[in-house]
Design brief:
eight-stranded parallel β-barrel, alpha/beta
Length: about 450
């Protein structure tokens, strides 16, 4: 991404030459082998089948009982796991990343964690400490992968806050923040000071046990950010459900207060903004302006959002007005407005403002690349693109071959841990998986072309 020795550039000018839109027609598939394309087509078709996504965990258990763990595991490794996961060991991850980098793509590592509220083994402090160790190892691996193939400025990884603090605590904090007057105890500055000093907070809105857990959580978040900064790895905080968003935003703001100083080459901590929420554009506008006034750098991962069905059902059960956009078209308009806001900020404020356009939507990507050209934002500057490993390769490859910075979100880990994570992500991303018909058609077209021996 952006590096610290770049001069701060002011309002940019359009690049020279005419605008040439990228073609997402699958032409870049010639870079991939036939076996890879065949697996991609089969897996994407499977994942677009609603019963498999809805009952994925049951199918997995049934497969293990019928076929045995070894054969069932081998089938998963050669299909869904192999398509969407980099591997289990560091060496397997390195092999996957080397293949991506040869195609002009960069890694965005993600530690798959699944909290189980009814499981004492996955809600105690020991579980969060294990996740802390996994996050610190992820920082080291993220840096090592870039050290071998490029400058450290390109090193990014994902961070899930509820891997280090409980969802229940986030719910308690969110409920308190949303009260009419909120609480002066919950300012980002006070949390940042507690992170830095290690002094215990005693918030009146929390019980003694909750205060202890909050302090431990702040310590874990601080350790990850501190280690990431020392290794020049930027942290992109994952979005989660809206009912804990106020707490997540508070915690991210505390991290940003401590680590996003432009003098230190920030932003080192980025937040994720979900365009499918009605208030996202307003919140983004307020947050970017607040960061500017505070003299902080500002990093954004812009997504459409993955929890639409769940959010709507929760709103209906609670008898509340839905906080989400009414349909996909409204979400796309929201995404477009947020994208325009951030691109203009990047154009005007240069390295102090960073953006990841995290989208599988071709029109959104086209809008971003065209506006980058019109605003004079360099391809290797503070704007990058992101897609999921194993999906949207017709867009990722075209961007990478054109010289844009493109990241693939890469989960890794053992089969037993990653498959439940993948199934839950698939349930959250139903619309994305079912909307991948164009990618399937392009894959099928390329495979037929090879079968018939036609030239590209």
């Amino acid at each position: 991404m952006v590096w610290t020795h770049l001069p701060l550039y002011g309002p940019s000018k359009p690049s020279t030459g005419g605008w040439q839109p990228l073609r997402f027609d699958g032409g870049a598939f010639h870079l991939k082998g036939t076996a890879e394309l065949t697996r991609a087509l089969l897996v994407l078709r499977l994942c677009a089948w609603p019963p498999l996504v809805t009952h994925g965990l049951a199918f997995q258990a049934w497969s293990q009982r019928l076929l045995g763990s070894r054969l069932s595991g081998a089938l998963l490794r050669s299909s869904i796991y192999g398509q969407f996961v980099a591997g289990e060991t560091a060496e397997e991850v390195r092999g996957c990343v080397r293949q991506l980098q040869a195609l002009g793509l960069q890694p965005l590592l993600a530690v798959p964690t699944e909290e189980e509220p009814d499981s004492a083994a996955k809600t105690g402090e020991a579980w969060y400490e294990e996740n802390l160790s996994a996050m610190l190892r992820c920082v080291d691996l993220s840096r090592a992968l870039v050290d071998a193939h490029g400058p450290a400025r390109n090193s990014l990884m994902q961070l899930k806050v509820t891997a280090l603090t409980s969802t229940q605590l986030c719910k308690e904090l969110s409920a308190w923040i949303q009260r009419p007057r909120g609480s002066s105890e919950l300012s980002p500055e006070k949390l940042a000071e507690a992170m830095d000093s290690g002094r215990n907070l005693q918030l009146s809105c929390l019980s003694t046990e909750q205060n202890q857990h909050l302090q431990a959580s702040l310590s874990r978040l601080h350790q990850v950010a501190q280690h990431a900064r020392s290794k020049s790895v930027r942290l992109l905080v994952d979005a989660e459900y809206t009912f804990i968003n106020p707490a997540l935003s508070l915690l991210v703001a505390a991290l940003a207060t401590r680590w996003n100083s432009p003098e230190e080459g920030g932003p080192w901590v980025w937040n994720t903004y979900q365009a499918y929420l009605k208030d996202t554009h307003k919140r983004l506008e307020q947050d970017v302006e607040a960061a500017h006034k505070a003299g902080l750098a500002f990093g954004v991962k812009l997504v459409r959002g993955a929890y639409l069905d769940k959010e709507r059902s929760v709103s209906q059960l609670q008898g509340k007005e839905a906080c989400t956009q009414p349909d996909y078209e409204a979400t796309s308009r929201s995404y477009s407005r947020c994208l325009e806001l951030m691109l203009r900020r990047v154009s005007n404020h240069g390295p102090e403002c960073h953006l990841m356009v995290a989208s599988h939507n071709e029109e959104s990507v086209r809008q971003a690349t065209k506006r980058m050209w019109e605003l004079g934002i360099p391809l290797d500057g503070p704007v990058c693109f992101g897609q999921l490993l194993g999906m949207c390769d017709h867009v990722s490859l075209a961007l990478g071959q054109a010289g844009y910075m493109v990241y693939k979100s890469i989960p890794y880990g053992c089969l037993e841990e990653v498959i439940p994570y993948l199934i839950r992500r698939a349930q959250e991303n139903r619309s994305v998986l079912q909307g991948a018909r164009r990618e399937q058609a392009l894959l099928s077209q390329e495979l037929w072309r090879r079968l018939l021996g036609r030239k590209a």
